[in-house]
Amino acid sequence: MSFPLGLRPVSQMRSAVHRWGISSGHSSVETVNREWRVLRALWFFLIAAVTLCSLLPASVVPRPPGGGTLEHLSAYLALALIPAVAMRRLYSVFVAVISVACLGVLLEILQIAIPGRAFEWADIVMNTVGVTAGVLAGVPLRLGSDRRINSG
Each residue of 137-146: pLDDT tens digit? Predict the structure, then answer.
């Protein structure tokens, strides 16, 4: 199984360190924390990118053929997958995923005031489908890891 950006579940990182005696001068906990920081930065970048693209006028960000259904699905899948895989506590994952879904609804409502944009129920449905798919895709990765990084 391949993982985005070469990141692996915590259990695989720890087992490789113990099995082969790999040492980079850093403990596996430091490596895991560094990887979580990278994922968290990527997650915040994606949130900012989705927010920006959603709130720009239609003349700046033209609507793709097909109405942007695939774009909504893939963006919200990524926004839900990152916390589903990386956050340690299930409660934190739940809060993050619900927040992402609420962000999608809020952005759709705000588009009413943006020139060339409109509130569309289909976009909210695709955002929700993307969030659900992201969480479901993260479940096997969570089950493959014995521990999660402390997410705060």
Answer: 998 887 666 4
